[in-house]
């Protein structure tokens, strides 16, 4: 292992020096290299490894809690060994392993072979090999020949994670959906091939990268498979700006300026970590291959709120029951990685205003560090009025705007895009926002059905079907509201019974709280205004004596439609309830289980909850599910307008009054707005400044103001 | 009537000249004066009238449809008489009347006395008289004396619409809730009196403006009424910026500039109307005392969408079952008027960016026009990314931002504020947004209960209870999707049954549409993904043959909790269903009925629906209800952070592809964003411009781009 030893000494400063990083900082490039070399060192030198994940092995929470307590109190910091988590294959085999490397000690601590039916995520190199295998296959070429495509037509292969149906699917496989590009425009590499789906689909096996089967696709309203027929020309459907007949000419620039700079500070912590401070908030930003952004140690005005926040999982099952579409059920985080797929964000394109970018580092299949430049953008945005009141007796208005801090990543998962953002505001609220955009996953449909359709999809272009599908997300909240002994409760509002003494007019209603005693899945109920809250009953509001709490506002959604006996249901262990609550255990991070690719279930949050642990006043984790049943509109093609989902965490009796009261008033001297025309009734471009600088100040005629 | 005739000729140009206005333009000040004079002219000159409403009597829809067709086709315009609707009292009596004045003919067309149990809205002058009556009443003074308040303490009276309980409430009454201002700061007129509620409440009758009863308030956990006890000092709870211990000093300015001006055009139509054109949208903005903003003739790319859009009603019933709180059930639009209560918006305070303001005119109690300056602001805002796709094979990203046009009003209803906005985007979507803010309506609670509480409210300050309450809004949508024969349908997604041939793996699901045949109330069902759509089946999508439609995205909410036998339930005729659909009839504009003040029910949308009309392919109206059950947090006091609700109307198979495809790409040359620090990895301040000006263009190494 001379070579490995050499890499080791040249690429990393020293094993000991890695200790200086904060224990929650992501691995550095050097640490990734060191880790890969240490793992390689346990194998003979002729064994080639395909690395899937090389990432920080987060310290056990117990250790970290002590560390953070020491850190915040200024006490000496405990020593926590720096460790890396690794998953890898022996290249070109199905031998899949998991290892933990102790970087502080410079040794591999554990290294075990996994399986059967445990598969690692796809990686970029593998996807390219699968594409190549599909495109070069003789059977595929023979099938293409039967379509009699115009000469020069470009063919595209979209590898899909195979999914699970229990039918000969123990091997690691990819289902490849085939498309062509517009034959009339073969030189345009960015022509939208999803407008030209082809009616067959090779299956590629991933040890030898060979096509093992060619599936022919049903293109009618039932299971019938047609013989391959010559292609009938259809028009293209392009999203590129230069392909549009014309672009709008009447949109004027709108610019966001922060002439005095940003209000946040972003302090690097080691090579890869960052501490963000903004408007009384503080937290650490981590990043990994799977979840992308992870926030740790989230505090408001130094008060502890959340130990860890991240998007834990997502599942996208499709509605078409027919082979092979019945297996389409993507887990974009576990199958591919939100971190790995993050876009390189461009100033002025993806982000408007005064922006700071973060760069992360993950591994490639060879165990080499890959920098992900600009994978997170950090900026402030104006979110409209924060609060306002006008005293109608004096006419004096008090108003503040709601400034938000946004940390945003955009991920591309083959055809589709998700814009993922954590937002913080000045009223102590955290918002997680998902914008779904990108291109629908399409399949061919017979032209006879273009204007008739099928009930499990929408025709979005002649000969093109976009099947209905669900997007179900799981946001993982590891709370520490004023400490680590928290509980989950829910409030419900109920009408009081009619009672001639107490409720004679039938108008009364009350709100009652229910404590969730045991781990499990729970659901929203709008008819009862059921509202979930994370609470610390040991800490009481000084004014009204209520336990400090944060409530969860999440939009209701249709839970997973697949049958409880289906693999879809078994695998998507979070998709059947709005809320799960479990006791905290290290490594229980992913709602659908650690390895989602061709998974079989039994390793996700439904399984964690099955321990039936008491979840009252202990270290709990709350999993919030949300999503959409995407019934495509033709307006969602060729690229869909963003569909926006938000989950909010809001303080309830956590503060003793509106925490945004001390936001400076919204004033013209600060905002410098402008009048669009002279069709106005403002006395001057500068509004009148009232007493104490309040420009929305006293009316000119107190007592005569407008009601 | 010499005096009236004189006013008439001096203040209005001429009756005939009023004809030149567009039939949907609000009344001008001159028309209001003319109308009031004409109504006065039918009474002896010694009869004094109290005007409640003088507003445009909108032409019958049938006439208007012909007019709009002519207008859009350039045909000669039909003559439509200009009319005014008036409601008024014989001053200081309960004699309440409704009149229609034909301004084109210069005559009163109808004039009828209403009642019994029909009451007009409050007006500003009346509210002041009620306050005065309460404050000057000897019984009130005697009660105050028993509280032994510090010398110089200022007392405040908050008149509340009386509500209905059927107990001696035929008269026109106000229930007045009493407060004091901070005795330690008597000179501060804007001190928050809601932190100092007093334990009694006079009832004022409105013919003579006399206190007819003094209600003592229950302040414990039950119905018990204490003897008045001397006041125990409590601290104040102020929202004024200068009253805060300190304001945040680390918030940097964020400015929105439109150096080339706004993208919209706002064309005055007559003195009071406006036509807005923006990004293929066009519509007329009207304004009235009750609804505030009303949008008419909303079109996209000339295609008709909505004949009329407005907030129709809102109801705020409270949870406390005890007398007199059981009657608290505000109808802010019908009882007071969203138009009448609109704030005078200030540049740089209420609106950020490049703003245009509209001024409206309503009547006062004397029939004189009152200009409402800056009651609507119009501006554009950036709403993040509109759509994005990155081709992972080439690395080329296509991305546009989502620009929105906003029309916003802010209303103050005594203690409370609503920020009401219509928003339009470039993807053919209309959004109606409500932000609830302002101050909770408070009542006294015994200090013994401060840390114990009651189940129908939250203690928000020592001795101060904020009762739970519901906010239930009704948005009225009068559609004209490609014509006036529309229908309401809903889609539901259902799992396919397990079937060994057709759905062997249990994953399939289908979407089925149900046509709503008859007028009535309907509900959301998240478990079925029930989605309501307004459809025109006579016009089909050219690609997929589906009827053109707009779907309604509205958040679910807990319906009215009050018992079906209660007055709350009888009056709030919209509050029991997410959706109502009715056939269109002129004057059926308000979901809770035309006169909500002390109403008895039977005049709102539930009653319109009871006709059981066929609503299939005819002129329909769709009423969308949404709201919140506001269980106060202490964070909602002394002024609450905005709670945001949105209803979206989105095209479904109305266009033949994403209508925002022709939005120019998001580019740095246009957006001119800036980097927050040099901690970045952008090659330069200007991003690289790719082919055809796409700055998010090709990756440097095609084929090697990030997944």
UniProtKB/TrEMBL annotation, chains A, B:
<dbReference type="Pfam" id="PF01179">
    <property type="entry name" value="Cu_amine_oxid"/>
</dbReference>
<dbReference type="InterPro" id="IPR015798">
    <property type="entry name" value="Cu_amine_oxidase_C"/>
</dbReference>
<comment type="subunit">
    <text>Homodimer.</text>
</comment>
<keyword id="KW-0560">Oxidoreductase</keyword>
<dbReference type="GO" id="GO:0009308">
    <property type="term" value="P:amine metabolic process"/>
</dbReference>
<keyword id="KW-1015">Disulfide bond</keyword>
<dbReference type="GO" id="GO:0008131">
    <property type="term" value="F:primary methylamine oxidase activity"/>
</dbReference>
<feature type="active site" description="Proton acceptor">
    <location>
        <position position="332"/>
    </location>
</feature>
<protein>
    <recommendedName>
        <fullName>Amine oxidase</fullName>
        <ecNumber>1.4.3.-</ecNumber>
    </recommendedName>
</protein>
<dbReference type="InterPro" id="IPR016182">
    <property type="entry name" value="Cu_amine_oxidase_N-reg"/>
</dbReference>
<feature type="domain" description="Copper amine oxidase N2-terminal">
    <location>
        <begin position="22"/>
        <end position="110"/>
    </location>
</feature>
<feature type="domain" description="Copper amine oxidase catalytic">
    <location>
        <begin position="255"/>
        <end position="661"/>
    </location>
</feature>
<feature type="modified residue" description="2',4',5'-topaquinone">
    <location>
        <position position="416"/>
    </location>
</feature>
<keyword id="KW-0186">Copper</keyword>
<dbReference type="InterPro" id="IPR036460">
    <property type="entry name" value="Cu_amine_oxidase_C_sf"/>
</dbReference>
<dbReference type="GO" id="GO:0048038">
    <property type="term" value="F:quinone binding"/>
</dbReference>
<dbReference type="Pfam" id="PF02727">
    <property type="entry name" value="Cu_amine_oxidN2"/>
</dbReference>
<dbReference type="InterPro" id="IPR049948">
    <property type="entry name" value="Cu_Am_ox_TPQ-bd"/>
</dbReference>
<dbReference type="InterPro" id="IPR000269">
    <property type="entry name" value="Cu_amine_oxidase"/>
</dbReference>
<dbReference type="GO" id="GO:0005507">
    <property type="term" value="F:copper ion binding"/>
</dbReference>
<keyword id="KW-0479">Metal-binding</keyword>
<feature type="active site" description="Schiff-base intermediate with substrate; via topaquinone">
    <location>
        <position position="416"/>
    </location>
</feature>
<comment type="similarity">
    <text>Belongs to the copper/topaquinone oxidase family.</text>
</comment>
<dbReference type="InterPro" id="IPR015800">
    <property type="entry name" value="Cu_amine_oxidase_N2"/>
</dbReference>
<keyword id="KW-0801">TPQ</keyword>
